[in-house]
Amino acid sequence: KHKFRIVHFLILCACSYQDWHQNGVPCQSEVINSPAPNSGLSAQDNTNTSYSSSTVPMITQTDSRDKWSKKMDFLLSVIGFAVDLGNVWRFPYVCYQNGGGAFLIPYTLMAIFGGVPLFYMELALGQFHRTGAISIWKRICPIFKGIGFAICIINLYVAFYYNTIIAWALYYFYSSFTSTLPWTNCNNLWNTENCTNYFGQSNITWTNYSRSPAEEFYMRNVLEIYMSSGLCSVGGIRWQLLLCLFLIFTIVYFSLWKGVKTSGKVVWVTATLPYVVLFILLIRGATLPGAWRGVVFYLKPNWEKLLETTVWVDAAAQIFFSLGPGFGVLLALSSYNPFTNNCYRDAIVTSLVNCLTSFLSGFVIFTVLGYMAEMRNVEVEDVAKDKGPSLLFITYPEAIANMVGSTFFAIIFFLMMITLGLDSTFGGLEAVITAVMDEYPHHLSKRRELFVLVLVIICFLGALSTLTNGGAYVVKLLEEFGAGCSIIAVVFLEAIAVSWFYGIQRFCNDIKSMLGFAPGIFWKVCWVAISPAFLAYIIISFLLDQPPLVLFDYKYPDWSITVGYIIGASSFIWIPVYMVYKLVWTPGSMKQVRHYLNINNTYYFNKY
């Protein structure tokens, strides 16, 4: 009990004393006493140290900060970030693996009580404080500032592997500009004797050794993974993929170099085009023979699955990674909003669009899987065993190759994948750019173009290992450990810091000053208890149930798992390191800190 009091006291010291040391009064340079919009409250003098519980804080707008040209620029940017490749490849697979239509029950509950409240919280924080993921902690609780640094490192790890997946899609996109798609038949240089083309053929037997033309194109031509024995020998860099990645980062640079003024225009194409393509593919898939088999397999409920803990864990993880709180992107994008923008409505609309997109993608994928099962004369379950990138680069291209108008559908499908990936890259790197530039404005405010160039070069160099013959193994390792359990732990601490240390009442008053109304009891309970419990549930489940890491029948050696843990810890470790740093190096004696807390503790924690 005494130890707990000591730790609590030290945290209060760091939170309060740094603000006092820097500003004289906690957040005095940022917070003014102001009436809420349409509230009729009388304004108070800034010099008045007394505070009424009915008064809400307001942050003044700064003309120097960029702003979105239009409201739709912001909405499309958020939707573009949240709706990514995972909506297309992960949700359909997770859904049918966990009970089909029955999975929608835990998925919806996890979205309502976990995902959407966290999504709303980040939008509100970014809009109110108008700063990035690092400097925002000076105004919330300075001892948690390491969260901002951890977020930036995680976003870098994601950029190292995620853009390589987009480069694969670009390679497919280029290869699709032919009258006959190169993964249609087995008459190519990269094909082996196991290549089996069953479309348009009769008396073809599909065995465990059979490989489709699409699988061999992906494995032996795009990746050339057969030239690598694993992580011990990844081989050389594929120059074709290197060129594709260079083109991807070139697009990224010129979309971000001028800030939201340019990225806000680009997303009008990259965020809307995927929906046009999805509807085209849905209509085409629904007309294929056997499509109904895939839809039935996708949605047929297995109610017994709801009794399994793994189903609820998968639902929680899916909604979390789908909406994407914790990456600092929502903080960054909303920080360019007008102060009175209705972020509550934005959170509801964008979350709903994201979830419906995932559900729609399931129909797009499973109508085609049903068609393939019909052509192979096997069960849909035997066709739907692929997940992750294999679903997008093997299974779906294989079906497209045997449709009428295959070239057209291949071009628009991979163009959709490129745009889906680019939107998420824009968001992830903008989070890093905004966080670092807001933390060091005197050095970087006039050098955005140069800073973005340096950041893009770092990401490009960091991705080189993923372009080798064994690059797919590196991608899988970074995907599992670079942004897996570490990002969930970061968001858990973020939710705790905002709800428990910053104060739920203070946070709600911040929202009231922007919107004119305070969040209801549902949101308060979610932020204080349910959402942290939701995140803790995912973390514990991940730690207790860690299946062996396998890719293409390659089992990752123990030393690579250790490397993975180091990668994950390299981002999260900044949180406790920064806590220790502030506790040790914050100037002033403990007596001064105690005296300050006695005077200002009520002001700091109960003012709002």
TrEMBL record:
<dbReference type="GO" id="GO:0046872">
    <property type="term" value="F:metal ion binding"/>
</dbReference>
<keyword id="KW-0732">Signal</keyword>
<keyword id="KW-0813">Transport</keyword>
<keyword id="KW-0472">Membrane</keyword>
<feature type="signal peptide">
    <location>
        <begin position="1"/>
        <end position="18"/>
    </location>
</feature>
<feature type="binding site">
    <location>
        <position position="83"/>
    </location>
    <ligand>
        <name>Na(+)</name>
    </ligand>
</feature>
<feature type="binding site">
    <location>
        <position position="420"/>
    </location>
    <ligand>
        <name>Na(+)</name>
    </ligand>
</feature>
<feature type="disulfide bond">
    <location>
        <begin position="186"/>
        <end position="195"/>
    </location>
</feature>
<feature type="binding site">
    <location>
        <position position="87"/>
    </location>
    <ligand>
        <name>Na(+)</name>
    </ligand>
</feature>
<keyword id="KW-1015">Disulfide bond</keyword>
<feature type="transmembrane region" description="Helical">
    <location>
        <begin position="268"/>
        <end position="292"/>
    </location>
</feature>
<comment type="similarity">
    <text>Belongs to the sodium:neurotransmitter symporter (SNF) (TC 2.A.22) family.</text>
</comment>
<feature type="transmembrane region" description="Helical">
    <location>
        <begin position="146"/>
        <end position="174"/>
    </location>
</feature>
<feature type="transmembrane region" description="Helical">
    <location>
        <begin position="237"/>
        <end position="256"/>
    </location>
</feature>
<feature type="binding site">
    <location>
        <position position="423"/>
    </location>
    <ligand>
        <name>Na(+)</name>
    </ligand>
</feature>
<dbReference type="GO" id="GO:0006865">
    <property type="term" value="P:amino acid transport"/>
</dbReference>
<keyword id="KW-0769">Symport</keyword>
<feature type="binding site">
    <location>
        <position position="82"/>
    </location>
    <ligand>
        <name>Na(+)</name>
    </ligand>
</feature>
<feature type="binding site">
    <location>
        <position position="424"/>
    </location>
    <ligand>
        <name>Na(+)</name>
    </ligand>
</feature>
<feature type="transmembrane region" description="Helical">
    <location>
        <begin position="104"/>
        <end position="125"/>
    </location>
</feature>
<dbReference type="GO" id="GO:0043005">
    <property type="term" value="C:neuron projection"/>
</dbReference>
<dbReference type="Pfam" id="PF00209">
    <property type="entry name" value="SNF"/>
</dbReference>
<feature type="transmembrane region" description="Helical">
    <location>
        <begin position="450"/>
        <end position="475"/>
    </location>
</feature>
<dbReference type="InterPro" id="IPR000175">
    <property type="entry name" value="Na/ntran_symport"/>
</dbReference>
<dbReference type="GO" id="GO:0005335">
    <property type="term" value="F:serotonin:sodium:chloride symporter activity"/>
</dbReference>
<feature type="binding site">
    <location>
        <position position="322"/>
    </location>
    <ligand>
        <name>Na(+)</name>
    </ligand>
</feature>
<feature type="binding site">
    <location>
        <position position="354"/>
    </location>
    <ligand>
        <name>Na(+)</name>
    </ligand>
</feature>
<protein>
    <recommendedName>
        <fullName>Transporter</fullName>
    </recommendedName>
</protein>
<feature type="transmembrane region" description="Helical">
    <location>
        <begin position="564"/>
        <end position="584"/>
    </location>
</feature>
<feature type="transmembrane region" description="Helical">
    <location>
        <begin position="525"/>
        <end position="544"/>
    </location>
</feature>
<dbReference type="InterPro" id="IPR037272">
    <property type="entry name" value="SNS_sf"/>
</dbReference>
<feature type="binding site">
    <location>
        <position position="80"/>
    </location>
    <ligand>
        <name>Na(+)</name>
    </ligand>
</feature>
<feature type="transmembrane region" description="Helical">
    <location>
        <begin position="399"/>
        <end position="422"/>
    </location>
</feature>
<feature type="transmembrane region" description="Helical">
    <location>
        <begin position="481"/>
        <end position="504"/>
    </location>
</feature>
<feature type="transmembrane region" description="Helical">
    <location>
        <begin position="348"/>
        <end position="373"/>
    </location>
</feature>
<keyword id="KW-0812">Transmembrane</keyword>
<keyword id="KW-0479">Metal-binding</keyword>
<feature type="transmembrane region" description="Helical">
    <location>
        <begin position="74"/>
        <end position="92"/>
    </location>
</feature>
<feature type="transmembrane region" description="Helical">
    <location>
        <begin position="312"/>
        <end position="336"/>
    </location>
</feature>
<dbReference type="GO" id="GO:0051378">
    <property type="term" value="F:serotonin binding"/>
</dbReference>
<keyword id="KW-1133">Transmembrane helix</keyword>
<dbReference type="GO" id="GO:0098793">
    <property type="term" value="C:presynapse"/>
</dbReference>
